[in-house]
Amino acid sequence: MYHLKELFPLYEWGGEPVAPYMFGAAGREHMEKYGTTADQFARIGWKNHKHSVNNPYAQFQDEYSLDDIKAARVVYEPLTKLQCSPTSDGSGAAVIASERFVDEHDLWDRAVEIAGQAMVTDTSDTFTDKSAITLVGSKMSALAARKAYDEAGMDASDVQVVELHDCFSTNELLTYEALGLAAEGEGGKLVDSGDNTYGGRWVVNPSGGLISKGHPLGATGLAQCSELTWQLRGQADKRQVENVTGALQHNIGLGGAAVVTVYRPAR
Question: Do the beta carbons of residue 196 and residue 47 sit within 8 Å?
């Protein structure tokens, strides 16, 4: 992968699994540039495991203390095992219908609208920035978010719940900034404020995210879509976020594409 060729000169690789190496390196760069701490990344793992306790569809439904998260086996600094998504299997489905179908079957009270959606592939910046953060898709995600917001006529302030691609806790923090939940370099401040969980400005990964819900690759995006649909319908049971009028989905794959989708109740 050309991404690795670009990353090797930036951060030492000691034979660790490639994915945590790449996203761990991006986390290290964020720490060096902005003063982000390992504890802030660990708090994301703690949050997502805590959220998953209320998700009967999650692969793991165990709550851990912050000390547990930090004391778990190190995979690639600053990532410990409990900040990494597991090997998973699963399936998901979404039914996409036309407005005519919704009207003919009187489904308006439960229909969810895809208000905006964009896919962005690697840009030249991915390989010219000489940045681990860019190599793992941060700029792709930011551009996809801007396009999806523009199509929807909405922005981050118009959503209350977010399902994003937390393959590793470091990527969740980077994605806060890419999606406009936090300014560049201030993802750690969002964690410290509690604005990424219940009682805060947004609830991010109420499902438990990839870290705890699981990451069954091809089904991951459909699981995110399902969670946000339930949230918009008020059907998320103990995970329900209050007064949801807008929802945001983010998914990436390296080598490379990012997809961002904005949902709202059908009008």
Answer: yes
pLDDT tens track for 81-111? 999 999 899 988 999 999 999 999 999 999 9
What would the pLDDT profile of 169-216 be if each residue is shown by its tens digit? 999 999 999 999 999 999 999 999 999 999 999 999 999 999 999 999
pLDDT in tens, 214-255: 999 889 999 999 999 999 999 999 999 999 999 999 999 999
Residue whose pair of structure tokens reads 């006529």 in the numeric block: 153
CB 22 within 8 A of CB 179: no
224 phi and psi angles, rounded to 5 deg:
-65, -45
Phi first, then psi: give them for residue 214, nearest 5 degrees: 115, 165
Q: Are 188 and 35 in contact (CB under 8 A)?
A: yes
| In the block, residue with structure tokens 């918009």 | 232
Residue with tokens 């981050």: 156
Average pLDDT over residues 107-129: 96
Q: Which segments within 183-256 are labelled E, that is strand? A: 203-204, 247-253
**What would the two tokens of residue 216 be?**
């069954």
